[in-house]
Write a structure and sequence with these properties.
By secondary structure, the chain is α+β, with helices and mostly antiparallel strands. It folds into three domains: 187 residues, no CATH class; 141 residues, no CATH class; 149 residues, no CATH class. The chain has 17 helices and twelve strands. The strands form four sheets. Strands 2, 6, 7, 8, 9 and 10 form a six-stranded antiparallel β-sheet that branches. The protein has a two-stranded antiparallel ribbon with strand order 1-3. Strand 6 and strand 7 form a beta hairpin. Helix 7 runs parallel beside helix 9, helix 8 packs antiparallel against helix 9 and helix 16 packs antiparallel against helix 17. It binds adenosine monophosphate and magnesium ion.
Length: 506
């Protein structure tokens, strides 16, 4: 039940008494009402399951010093001397309903490091025990969701999509009770910050304008230093967050990603993908596709994601109103004007992404209609999102044919008609077939974390075999490269393997 590497890797915490990770804890220095000071709970038998050495190096941590004690450090059993753990306060709209007090109920910010590039990054434990924000939760995380976040967040990074990262996964040797008993685990998550739309809502809901103002100053320092001198910094900040969210969601759609729980507490103001609960990747394309077992109405379905992001930004705008203008009506008018910029940014990013996916190096007026035609043909056959674009690259190549592409369509007549229009359009795009096909292979991944592969890896891990998880991580680290030895990871699920529903497992 409890997987892990041999215990020889784990050292007693006495060896750790002096380890420093170079933390500088700026969020801890904000007033008390921003957080709760809390130590991680001890766990019985920590075992290191995964450690992201390249990321550790990027963060400026010394892997040689950290790795031997990683199980202790990243379970929370041992604290670096410069760690100062806090649970962050935030609120949030969950499925449209406002909850004024959420906060880190099972996570702790250990501290912040300034990485090799000079960027400030949060180091957070998730699953580290109860906090004052736990409500009825146990403060713990189960192995499956921890490994899921690890593999999917790292895959998103390899796909070039802004995301939180995963530094380590540790099993605890304890049982957590969900629908069934599960092995417990702790994830170490790295983020450019854990500020969310819900963090602003927390102070707004309390009428704490001073808190809001301190939060805005902090957020600007951390994410948008150039905007601090803007005429109306709150408004400029809203515009910047809006543009990042619009670009992020466009990137999600391009790879067929369904976040699954786009609540405002899971909407990072950094523009990073945050919280991989019930997320999934499209196999067959349908715009209404949703996976999460708790998303009954399909609020967070694939094609709803842009409008939900916009809705979430409207909640951010509401929270910021007192900082935008002392006159309510003027504040609202100014915020509305900024939010009206969202569709244009989204469309630019989405259409730009789609153009690259079908091999166009520049835009023409008719291109949106051309891509819409492809999506319609794909939808009619529920053709595989990832493979269609990859086979289209093959079809674009010198001497390439359309056989493999057509085989993805239950109704090839639709795609045949579309291909004629596409070829005519390519004739007006000045690139050689080889150049175009190669560019398309850099825009269209061959390997994404297919739901059935993720489930298989997690099932094996729960019964003690980490190899499928490790192989999956390795394959997804190079999503655009042909990897003949792992060709099966590019294949869609067989009918009996299809994952129809995902669970957040909290
Ligand atoms: P999530 O679904 O992970 O975005 O979490 C939503 C809220 O529920 C956050 O405030 C979490 O801290 C809290 N939460 C989720 N799972 C637990 C748990 N097992 N124990 C305590 N709080 C939790
Ligand atoms: Mg969350």
């Amino acid at each position: 039940m409890f997987p892990g590497k041999p215990s020889g890797r784990d050292r007693p915490s006495s060896l750790l008494a002096m380890i420093r990770l170079g933390f500088d804890n700026s969020y801890r220095r904000l007033p008390e009402r921003f957080h709760a000071v809390q130590r991680p709970a001890r766990v019985v038998a920590p075992r290191l399951l995964a450690f992201n050495r390249p990321l550790a190096e990027e963060l400026g941590l010394d892997p040689l010093a950290v790795e031997p004690v990683a199980a202790e450090l990243f379970s929370g059993n041992a604290l670096a001397t410069d760690a100062d753990p806090i649970a962050l306060a935030y609120a949030g709209h969950q499925f449209g309903h406002f909850v004024p007090s959420l906060g880190d109920g099972r996570a702790l910010l250990l501290g912040e490091v300034v990485d090799r590039e000079g960027r400030r990054r949060d180091v957070q434990l998730k699953g580290s025990g109860p906090t004052p924000f736990s409500r009825r939760g146990d403060g713990r995380a189960a192995l499956g969701p921890v490994l899921r976040e690890y593999v999917v967040s790292e895959a998103m990074h390899a796909l070039g999509i802004p995301t939180t990262r995963s530094l380590a996964a540790v099993s605890t040797g304890e049982v957590v009770h969900r629908e069934t008993p599960q092995p417990g685990a702790v994830l170490t998550r790295i983020a450019s910050s854990h500020l969310r739309v819900g963090t602003f809502q927390y102070f707004a809901a309390r009428g704490d304008v001073e808190g809001l103002s301190l939060l805005l100053e902090y957020a600007l320092r951390r994410h948008d230093p150039g905007l601090a001198s803007a005429e109306r910094p709150a408004l400029a900040f809203l515009g910047a967050v809006s543009a990042r969210q619009a670009a992020l969601v466009a990137r999600w759609l391009c790879v067929g990603f369904v976040h699954g729980v786009m609540n405002t507490d899971n909407t990072a103001i950094s523009g990073e993908t945050l919280d991989y609960g019930p997320c999934a990747f499209l196999d067959g394309y349908h715009p209404g596709r949703k996976f999460s077992s708790i998303d009954h109405g399909g609020r967070y379905a694939f094609a709803n994601q842009p409008s939900i992001a916009r809705w979430n930004l409207a909640r951010l705008a509401e929270a910021l109103l007192p900082l935008i203008d002392s006159d309510d009506d003027r504040a609202i008018a100014a915020a509305v004007e900024v939010l009206e910029g969202f569709p244009a940014v989204f469309e630019r990013e989405w259409q730009g992404g789609l153009r690259a996916k079908i091999g166009l190096s520049s835009g023409e007026e008719g291109d949106p209609a051309l891509v819409a035609g492809l999506l319609a043909a794909m939808q009619a056959s529920e053709a595989d999102w990832t493979l269609v674009f990859r086979r289209l690259a093959d079809a674009a190549d010198e001497g390439g044919d359309e056989v493999a592409l057509r085989s993805l369509f239950a109704r090839p007549d639709g795609i045949d008609a579309w291909l004629r229009g596409w070829r005519a359009r390519l004739a007006r795009d000045a690139r050689s077939p080889r150049e175009r096909a190669n560019a398309m292979r850099r825009a269209n991944p061959l390997f994404v974390p297919r739901n059935h592969r993720v489930e298989q890896a997690l099932r094996a891990a729960a019964s003690g075999d980490l190899r499928p998880f490790e192989t999956l991580c390795e394959v997804l680290g190079r999503p655009f490269d042909e990897q003949p030895a792992h060709a099966e990871f590019a294949e869609p699920p067989r009918p009996e393997e299809v994952v129809r529903e995902t669970f957040c497992g909290t």
